[in-house]
Amino acid sequence: MQFVNPSFLYALAVLAIPVIIHLFHFRRYKKVFFPNVKFLEEVEIQSKRQSKLRDLLILIARLLALTALVFAFAQPFIPIDKQSVVGGEHAVSVYVDNSFSMDSRGREGFLLDMARKKAREIALAYSTADKFQLLTNEFEGVQQRWITREEFLKSLDDIKLSPVSRTLPEIISRQRDLLSGITKGNRHEHILSDFQKSFTTFNNVKNDSSIRTFLVPIIPQGVTNIYIDSVWMENPVFQPGMQVLLSVKIVNTSDTKAEKIPVKLVLNGLQRAVASVDLAGNESRVVNMTFSIRDKGLHQGFVEITDYPIVYDDRYYLGFDAVDRFNVMLVNGNGGNPYIDKLFEGDSAVNYKVRQEKSLNFNEFTQNDLVILSGIENISTGLGAELSRFVKQGGSLLVIPPVKAQLESYKAFLQGFGMSALEKPDTADTRATNINLQHPLFRNVFESMPQNMQYPEIKMHFSQAGNKGSGESLIKLLNGDDLLSVATFGKGSVYLSSVDFNDAFGNFHKQAIFVPTLFNIALYSRKTGEISYTIGKDQLIPVQNRDNRGDKVLKLRNEKGDFEIIPEIRPIDETFFIHNNNQVKEAGNYRLYSENTLMGGISYNYNRNESQPITFQPGELSKKLTDLNLNTISVFDTGKTPVAKAIAKINQGTTLWRWFLWATLLFLLAEVFIIRFWKK
């Protein structure tokens, strides 16, 4: 047993007063003369004994009454566990889950409304002198401070559904950041949520004996949902006239089979493809749709299904840029390469230019998608550094060493990209034998590999020393060496040919495979970025149109034109990124402008974690906490015990003062009864 006000126990000293009165009998006796006491001797002895017993019982009753009264004022209690601290101020942090899953219905209405009601009950269970924090998924700066109970109750009405979703470890960490500043009193954190399984992880959650954590499940009724999980296209780049395969993953979270669910693709306001899908219970399927790109420029739209009652995840926004021209620059060291010139100069889709090594301007690199190094015998340190920076920022580089290449300079250059060094030319006749059809470069070149395909004949090639480093083989030779390989570096790619494109090395430049190989290297050098991004995630989005950026202010607008922000610009490794700082709250297609110049589009979607309505029941949560030995975290089963009553028991323990007050009255009644009915 413990006491809320143990200082009142000093009042037990007053028990000495009735004891002193009893011992000294502060009372004057009056003498009465009686003629003959012989007959009263026996009665007198008996009366004295009864009087002493009566006085002793009265003393005991008074002592017990005073003791019980003192104990009542000291407010004794029995704590519910060793961690309970009763008395003093409380610092109370309350998290209300306002993610989209809280738009489902429970026994008493929508889950968010139920959470607001429970949060109100929690606040009213504490004192007006206590400190409160109201936390939601936005993690706004204004929420990271203490407020009064009255302010807390008013703020509850302002909570709205949010596209941002968090995890349980993020919530607990955020609450404890503020609670850690409180050094005295009680520190409590309450988490009100439907506790979806995607939300409820306990990674990095640890016991803190100074903080009590309470999980308050807001239990939904049986909720089913069919939603679009993700959308993707395998094409790394898009061109007018190109046929595109679009894949849509659709998930059914219910146990019921869903039939003939319509799926449609809308681009630039026009329906471009339709499909339907049947889904068994708890099944997911990928639906493929094809469409052709009609025009160059920005294309934005969405994929949509129809489902009820959860509708926020039935539409998936996407966007991409179709380019009609690619920028390719050839850096020459030996007078040019007629085969590369002939391939690119006559193609209207390629903006092709040739620069001589001696008159090269390094600043031109960033204006190109692909740089081809041909006939450069010695790669200088300055040239190597600039090309490395170009590739790291997202450019592509094709290296074609000449027969008189200074291998030491190539060794240092290639090893900077993680590729193995070149050895002296191997003059043994061989031929190509294997093409990596799984690589995007060749994935759509052949409908089927011809059995009688003529592979390039190679008279001479540079072999690579040791292992291949980070390079991936694209075309192999019979002897196991690579004819063409590629390595990823930073955001770009480095392609390495082991042969020069002339007759001394063989006939690779005259074979049919030569044209799609070089053209696809140029095509896939153009980076188009992601087709969509997720609201609420801390994502940096690269600015694709570097030429138009300049120093002008960028603005992000939605399609309707009623929303506009100035995003933050962050330069990283000479590449510019934008960050919206969680200012985008609504899924949709947005456009990026530099003044009135369109620089590109960005499509945002809501987080699909909220689309899985699979939640933990209170019993499951308790078992999980027990298994993880998280004994400072408790679960409130609101279906069994009201929140206010449960909190009162935690804050006060099992209170005993009422019992001691009744005991005081009982002992006083006993004293009155003895005095009144036990006559001397």
Beta-strand percentage range: 25-35%
Based on CA atoms alone, the radius of gyration comes out at 41 Å
Biggest β-sheet, characterized?
A: 9 strands, mixed
- Can you name the CATH architecture of the largest domain? 3-Layer(aba) Sandwich
Low-confidence parts, pLDDT < 50 over ≥5 residues? none
State the end-to-end CA separation.
41 Å
CATH class of the largest domain: Alpha Beta
Please state the overall shape, judged from the principal axes of the Cα atoms: elongated
Question: What number of structural domains do the residues give?
Answer: 5
CATH homology-level superfamily of the largest domain: Class I glutamine amidotransferase (GATase) domain
What is the helix tally?
12
How many β-strand runs? 36
The computed structural class is alpha/beta
At CATH level 3, the topology of the largest domain is Rossmann fold
Order the strands across the largest sheet as they lie in space: 17-16-18-19-26-25-24-21-22
Bin the helical content: 10-25%
Q: What's the rounded overall pLDDT mean?
A: 85
